[in-house]
Amino acid sequence: MSEGKTAKGADPAAFRMLYEGRNLISERPVVVLDIGKAYTKCGFAGESGPRCIIPTEFQCKATGITLKVFDYKTPDQLFQNLVDFVHILFFKYLLVTPKDRKVVIVESLLSPSIERDTLAKVLFNYYELASVCLVPSHMVSLYTLAVPTALVLDIGYKEAILIPVVENTPVLHAYQALAFAGEAVENNLKKLLESQCKEEEQFYLKAKPLPSSTIEDIKVRGCFVTRLDRAQMIQASLKEPSVTAPKPPPELVYPLGGERSITVPGTARELAYEVLFELDNDLMSIATMILDAILKCPVDTRVPLAENIVLIGGTSMALGLKARLQQELQDLLVTPQYIKKLALKTFCFHSPPAKENYVAWLGGAIMGATNSIVKRSVLKEDYQKLPKIPDWADLSFNCQDSTKRG
Ligand SMILES: Nc1ncnc2c1ncn2[C@@H]1O[C@H](COP(=O)(O)OP(=O)(O)OP(=O)(O)O)[C@@H](O)[C@H]1O
Ligand SMILES: [Mg+2]
Fold first, then answer.
1. 182-276 matches 27-141+357-398 in CATH topology
2. CATH architecture under which domain 147-180+282-351 falls
3. What atom of ligand 1 comes closest to residue 183's alpha carbon?
4. In the chain, what are the domain boundaries?
5. pTM, whole model, 2 decimals?
6. Angle 182-196/212-222 helices, nearest 10 degrees?
7. Among 83, 162, 332, 354, which residue carries the largest CB count within 10 Å?
8. pLDDT by residue (tens digit) across 203-250?
């Protein structure tokens, strides 16, 4: 950069050289993005982990307020949010130019069409990417394990989504979705704190509620999923005062900065995750989701599916969740609802070679390093001719005379 030039008035050519620098020594690596409702994982194909996992939010240039990317009212607002957020990903974290680059987007098969279409518009029309390859998170997660058949349950932030995959094909009619995941656990913890902590602390909590980052930190570091027998005893004691509740775990003193702290009662630490196991209005929990999905699959696939359960998403990292799920499944098997329909004995969980919150990203990174993205990507030229992204939920792509891309 020539002398005396400020960063604001920097020479664009010099900036391009700076960002393209890494390309002089290697071929342009494919970028892999998994933009979740709470956290975004981004990095390069062929690498063993994402370069960063950051909250899916950005600072509004006009007001300086931090906004969540998927808090939008109109498609235009979503477009602008994504423009600002993708800029941060490329120019602050990945340090490469997006122009003429190949990108793999890891997405949920159930994500709203408006979000994937707007993302494609941002990537092709605004950032002029060379190609975009959208891969379903449940399927690519299995690339990390090299198993063709599994029951993949993603417990992320907004919802838990389960899709069985049989011989690398998602069994879409058997999918299950539950609107309870990390966010619901945080809301439950907040309620428990407000009702159970010490009186003087309750007063402070009402005057100045804890920020969501603090609630999340207490959840991740201080709460755990309790055993089924303890949960049942606690539930019974709440309904019937004559039943004595088990002794709660020790309380936790959580510092809030300065001299302030909050005492998290043992019962709140133990009960925060119970929302995931309580039956909702449709009589569903994360355990019934698994059995209901298996029931909807062909009979010959049921045992392999029960023996190949893959949990992905940040909330599935909660302490004790796998063990509790195992107990819940065994307990449900002998209930009248399932005993005559399912002849299963064991449920086995896989341990993927990465933390659960970025298993799907890793699957995308494996796929991005293979030749299959050449075949499966939508190219910029094709998108310019027909600005549409193939979508299984869109009949124009799934009828015999469907629009074909060159
Ligand atoms: N070690 C942990 N224990 C418990 N919860 C965790 C842990 N690590 C992350 N989480 C929680 O996982 C959630 C984020 O998970 P993830 O990154 O899979 O969500 P996302 O992909 O952004 O959401 P979605 O898939 O719903 O769009 C947050 O609620 C976070 O608090
Ligand atoms: Mg996710």
1. no
2. 2-Layer Sandwich (3.30)
3. 29
4. 27-141+357-398, 147-180+282-351, 182-276
5. 0.90
6. 90
7. 162
8. 778 788 889 999 999 999 999 999 999 999 998 988 888 888 899 999
